[in-house]
Amino acid sequence: MNSSAVGAEGTPAPSRFITEHKLIVVFGAMTLLIHFLTNGRYNYFRDELYYIACGQHLAFGYVDLPPLSALLVRLSRVLFGDSLFAIRFLPAVAGALNVALTGMIARELGGRSWAVALGCTASLCALVFLAVGNFFSMNAFEPPFWMGAIYLLVRIINGGPPRLWLWFGALIGLGLENKHSMAFFAAGICVALLLTPERRYLAQKWIWLGGLIALLLALPNVIWQMRHDWPTWELLHNIAQSNKNVLLTPAQFIAQQVLIMNPATLPLWLGGLIWLLASRDGRRYRVIAIAYLVTLAEFIVMHGKHYYLAPAYPMLFAAGAVGAERLFSIRLQWLKPALLVTMIALAALLAPTVMPILPPERLIAYMKAIHFEPPRTETSHTAALPQLFADQFGWEEMARTVAHVYTHLAADDRKRAAIFCQNYGEAGALDFFGPKLGLPPAISGHQNYFLWGPRDYTGEVLLVLDDRDDDEREQFESVMDLGQVVSSPWAMPWEQRNHIYLCRHIKGTVRDLWPRLKVWL
Description:
The chain is mostly helical. It folds into two domains: 11-226 and 242-353, no CATH class; 395-517, no CATH class. The chain is built from 26 helices and five strands. It has helices at residues 13-38, 46-55, 68-80, 84-87, 89-108, 113-125, 127-132, 138-157, 164-178, 182-194, 205-227, 231-241, 250-260, 266-278, 286-301, 313-327, 335-350, 360-370, 387-390, 395-407, 411-416, 424-437, 448-452, 470-475, 493-496, 510-513, and strands at 417-421, 443-444, 461-466, 476-484, 499-506. It has a five-stranded mixed sheet with strand order 2-1-3-5-4. Helix 5 packs parallel to helix 8 (138-157) and helix 9 (164-178) runs parallel beside helix 11 (205-227). The chain is globular.
């Protein structure tokens, strides 16, 4: 029998359930409010502009992402519009749902009010969740898929109906359509099932039917990958062969887990891991701990970015909260509120480094004052601001500069001119801001823009955004520098160095040149 069915100190179980339910709702609402109050203070993020472009080209897959996030941003624009608040509405909801699921898992593990409060607070105060819930990306939706599956798994272990495996499979399948890293977490769960008594479920039809549902939901993207010669695999191979990402040793990877989850939450999630593996009550759910450890090992071996494992931590927060509630139920009760206050205080101190709370110039001074800035994930990041923020500046200024140049071309040139960008951020910005400025759709060789091709452009007249014109002079008969792109001093440095080159008379044809412009990195 699940211990959560027993009331605390004589309190009827239904009354306790209502109290815990209210706590979950309150923490979810607080999360939502925090994101609503802060997510419109800077500007559109580089990747958001790319997702929006993908949403204009709905398909069953893209070079660097499955289809769900593109569909969601398209749906968001239809329902709410194009404002920052509208684009970031669903990520904020996903962040609130992640916090709520932490409380629900804690309750299902046998936790009471304090466990729910501690678990929800930890998820709310985790720096990485404060960051990803504040802008649109597939990372924002990943934690609810992972933790939704874990919640169902715990319910099944507690005697829930076997048909829950069908919903479990649906979440795994949808999670795969959101981000491919769900496959690594699913593999971790499979290994954990095999290594624990929960392997008994493999003898039942329901788990296999759930697996079939997951496969069917993921199949459209798999077919798309096959039809396009596995572009995501090619992309990952290119990244592995490059110097793009910061490579972490196992010790560095684990140290950065502590950092991005908020160091004050360490006692909770590490204690949760120990509680699941070593305590009498927790061992019943040790499948969760093993799934975490297997997924951790996968990302360490594959040199994954530090935030790849982040969606797994709410289940450890929940377990640690249950362990803390029981450990300090009689003695040292003051440690529970002390832990809660410490997590909140450190989150408040560090929040400006991951959320757009301060103006850029004040943020730089603030980071120097507290001697902290978020760790880099890419080697090319040299901006004064953290990459998450630097990639939110300069896009509209760039689009206006290009529009000014474009509108001053001769009428005949405007009819034939294409605009070529070096990366999907630039191309996405022109596609987003450009229509109101009279610009045609942009083209690029970067990521899925390469698959969308050169459209109907002949290459007779091309405006190219680049920081130097060496390549353009090899590819065109005539190249003229029309000046530097106006950007923001807070943008990425290479975006501030761009010039606009007017290129005429391509050497050969666009069809011949296009394969050489492919950049999957």
